[in-house]
Specification:
This protein has no helices and 15 strands. With about 220 residues, it is mainly beta. β4 and β5 (about 55-60) form a beta hairpin. The protein starts with 10 loop residues before the first strand and ends in a 21-residue tail after the last strand. Residues about 200-205 and about 205-215 have low confidence and may be disordered.
Length: about 220
């Protein structure tokens, strides 16, 4: 009888979009190559975080399509750790690419701000380009469906603090629906207070007030 103990992790590499320097979409293709001469390849661990706090463990393949980068313009890096059938995990390898998002900028045009005695709010908004759609939310409500309307109204607001946010998007990649890389990554926001009256403290009327104490 004889057996072989595999204590050597695999070796490999990763390329984003075949090594292209830039992309306008947060969805990219990963080209992967790994080898393990003893037990063979089994898994790969993918992450946009060097600490792999958020990672995806997937069956090893040489092409991984539609991997989502962090949807923020700038230099983005993908990290990969390869794992063989014996459970040996290699040190991470990585590749980076410059992400240039084409998402529009959201413009919040009007709406309540500061303090308002009215339990009613109406916001108008727009974007830096044409043919935009919008999604918005009041307070802790979920995001609305995408719409071409540029006004949002809310009635029956209770006294206290309130919050509004809106984001614009534009279909630029030709895929049906709005993808995450087509949304403005920095929504416009506004906070205000309902039911708060004037903050001016009235001064007492009449003659001067005299203060004294008895020793």
């Amino acid at each position: 009888w004889g057996f072989t103990v595999d204590l050597t992790p695999p070796s490999g590499s990763v390329l984003i979009n075949g090594g292209l320097p830039t992309t306008t979409s947060a969805y990219v293709t990963l080209n992967l190559q790994a080898e393990d001469e003893t037990s063979g390849m089994a898994w790969m661990h993918l992450s946009n975080d060097p600490g792999f706090d958020r990672s995806s463990r997937e069956v090893y393949t040489t092409v991984r399509e539609n991997w989502q980068l962090n949807p923020v313009s700038g230099r983005q890096t993908v990290y990969v750790k390869f794992e063989d059938k014996a459970g040996n995990i290699a040190e991470p390898v990585s590749d980076d690419i410059e992400l240039e998002l084409l998402a529009p900028e959201t413009l919040l045009i009007s709406g309540p701000a500061g303090a308002s005695p009215q339990p009613h709010a109406e916001f108008t908004f727009g974007c830096s380009e044409t043919d935009c759609v919008f999604s918005y939310a009041f307070d802790n409500e979920p995001w609305s469906e995408w719409t071409t309307q540029t006004t949002a109204v809310k009635d029956g607001l209770v006294f206290g603090n309130h919050y509004f946010k809106v984001k614009a998007a534009k279909d630029t990649n030709g895929h049906a629906g709005i993808q995450v890389d087509e949304e403005d990554p920095t929504p416009a926001e506004r906070t205000w207070i309902v039911g708060l009256g004037s903050l001016v403290v009235p001064l007492p009327q009449g003659g001067p007030i005299k203060l004294w104490k008895v020793e």
